[in-house]
Amino acid sequence: MSPFERKFGKYAIRNLSYVLVFCYAVGYLLQMMDRSGFVLSWLTLNPYAILHGQIWRLVTWVLIPPSSGGLFLTLLMLYFYCSLGTSLERVWGTYRYNVYLFQGMLFTIAGSFLLMGYCYLFQPQIPVIYGNALHFLTIDTPYEYFREIAVLFSTFYINMSIFLAYAATFPNAQVLLMFIIPVRVKWMGIFYAVVLVYQFIQTGVTGKIVIGASLLNFVVFFLTSRNMMHLNPKQIHRRQEFKRDLRRNTGITKHKCAICGRTEVDSPQMQFRFCSKCDGNYEYCEEHLYTHTHIKRN
Fold it and tell me: Which residues of the chain have pLDDT under 50?
């Protein structure tokens, strides 16, 4: 366990995938209720608007859902990414999965401001289509200019980073392509990685910043976890359990439950309390504090 995890692990959000999927569901609901897109336009990651007081956009852009092809595909996508995220959290741990997702979101936010700086310096106008006519927005009308650019920063590449991380962690897992063809996840991961690299090469600077910022967290994950890529999830879990037992057996702990023997090393988020009704200094975890049998000397 790293010093950061020991200090901030208790603040990690459990089942973060469910929270993310709930945000997508709210975004899809807003899309169905507001066909004009007026409401969602106030939620996008617009760096110019953020600097002018609309700071809620730093959070609400997560509500902008990836594009879908109808209600069925939307529900399928929500279920698919929820199951992927849950599997990653179970193997990595809640803290590390939280760091992975929030790191990707922070990189995306930083990328939007980097793109704004680039536009001010090197891209004075962008082409947009209104109706059937081509128009050019200039940097002289910054709000409308960056409103068009803000829609490029969505959760699509965040989802893609989740899938790539899943493919790297569970390379031999199988999924049914088109509900019929069994395919190993690693081949799908390689295919999508090739597509993303191709898109990155073919697109302009704007697209490069969008793709690079959104997927930078996977690059960081790959570089920091390359020594564990050859291990399957069970081996990773056993390695983590071994390190935890080693720290528990060789280190000195401050708290230990008199019933189950758990310490703050085993469960950093667990609370420990002494029982005032027991004779002696007996400490219990929060699960056994009110359920144990009181120890009496007489």
Answer: 228-231
